[in-house]
Write a structure and sequence with these properties.
Blueprint: E1 6-9, H1 16-25, E2 30-34, H2 37-44, E3 53-58, H3 64-73, E4 79-84, H4 89-98, E5 102-106, H5 110-124, E6 132-138, H6 145-159, E7 164-168, H7 176-179, H8 188-193, H9 200-206, E8 208-209, E9 214-217, H10 231-244, E10 247-252, H11 258-265, E11 269-274, H12 278-289, H13 293-299, E12 300-307, H14 316-323, E13 328-332, H15 335-344, H16 348-351, H17 356-369, H18 383-391
């Protein structure tokens, strides 16, 4: 997620849609919009404690006074000025002297805007946000690991909220694209074929947006000629993903081999998904035995999916005794809701928000990642949003 909220100032109506789109691609929150620098300064001077990125459009020569108004009222807040490409060097210098941190010429160039915003983020961004990579894998096929991955990623991005990437680390017959009704142009095998060219910038451009804070890297849906790959190439992809979001969820195929172990080693936490059956419990134990003891003790979480508390012989106490792991979590059994969501190609929160599965996933996120659900504000609106409505434009619905 971009480290600063964004405030748009004096943006022409024709420029608003592309500007909103590009900041959404940067996973930046457009917190509010104002028609003028005066309106923005009058409203925001009451909330100087939280810096914001001020993006102002200057359509006429000699408007450095608008920039000066913002920089003097909101000291320490970065200002990105959108200017005409015909402005002279002396005019641009005056804008810089007035307080503009970055200057982007119009018409808008996507890459130039992204570079300017990235530099502002580096120079003015808030403190370090800890990043997590979480692997989700089934003890055996059919445990529901991919369904859990999808809804875990969506919950983290929408409810907590954190910028999130969901990556399907399968070389053959991926499921994410169909389960989320996506049509990715670039999939994991494409990147692996060109691994010598891949960096975090290229990888970011290939991610498919699902929501404002959730992006996806899918595997190929068809049988692929790329049946084997060097484990370090996949690890390289994971390390680039780590840079691009607060939380990265890896959907790993079931099973344990050299490649799987290398990927697991690159992750901070491992969610091993199983069922209340004897074969599944055996598979969980075999998986655990393949990992170093330190990993089992500190970063392995066993998740019993479709949990039925009434199933005799497989209650929590009995499962813990059979599995031998104190890190045991459960996900409720709600086949009807899952089936509805899968058939519609949407996360559970969108289709059936009342399902108990989401309650269990949110509890899982709190325990595994140490995140807390934000306090709900009145009518779903924060104080600043209500205040912004009284001074300027309605906050953008990106």
């Amino acid at each position: 997620m971009y480290p600063l909220p964004v405030v748009l100032v004096g943006i022409e109506d024709s420029l608003l849609p592309p500007l909103r789109r590009e900041f959404a691609a940067l996973v930046a929150e457009i917190e509010s919009e104002f028609g003028s620098a005066s309106a923005a300064a009058d409203c925001l001077r009451r909330s100087k404690g939280q810096p914001r990125l001020l993006v102002i459009q200057l359509s006429e020569v000699g408007q450095e006074s608008a920039v000066l108004k913002l920089s003097s009222t909101l000291r320490g807040w970065p200002i990105l000025a959108l200017v005409s490409d015909s402005d002279s060097a002396s005019e641009l210098l005056r804008l810089n002297r007035a307080g503009a941190s970055q200057i982007v010429p119009l018409p808008l160039d996507r890459d130039d805007l992204h570079r300017a915003a990235a530099m502002v983020g580096v120079q003015f961004g808030a403190g370090h946000v800890e990043k997590h990579v979480v692997a989700v894998t089934g003890a055996a096929g059919g445990a529901g690991a991919t369904t859990l991955s999808i809804n875990l990623a969506h919950e983290v991005s929408s409810q907590f909220p954190r910028s999130t990437i969901l990556a399907e680390m399968s070389l053959q017959l991926g499921a994410l694209a169909s389960m989320l009704d996506l049509q990715p142009k670039v999939t994991l095998p494409h990147l692996l074929r060109e691994i010598h060219r891949v960096d975090d910038y290229l990888l970011e451009r290939t991610l498919v947006p699902v929501t404002e804070r959730l992006r996806v890297l899918a595997a190929a849906q068809e049988l692929h000629s790329l049946s084997q790959v060097a484990p370090d190439h996949l690890v390289r992809i994971v390390e680039y993903l780590r840079k691009l979001a607060d939380i990265t969820i890896l959907d790993l195929p079931a099973g344990v081999d050299e490649t799987q172990l290398e990927l697991l080693h690159a992750c901070d936490q491992i969610l091993l998904v199983g069922l209340q059956t004897v074969p599944s419990i055996r598979a969980i134990k075999m998986f655990s035995d393949s990992l170093p003891r330190e990993r089992v003790d500190n970063s392995l979480w066993v998740v019993i999916n479709r949990y039925n508390p009434s199933l005799k012989g497989f209650g929590m106490g009995e499962l813990q005794q059979m599995i031998g792991s104190p890190r045991l979590l459960t996900i409720a059994n709600d086949y009807h809701s899952v089936n509805q969501a899968v058939n519609r190609g949407r996360p559970l929160r969108v289709v059936t928000p009342e399902t108990p599965i989401l309650r269990d996933i949110d509890r899982l996120i709190q325990q595994v990642l140490g995140l807390e659900l934000p306090a709900t504000s009145v009518n779903g609106n924060g104080i600043f949003r209500r205040m912004f409505r009284s001074f300027g434009k309605t906050p953008a619905q990106v």
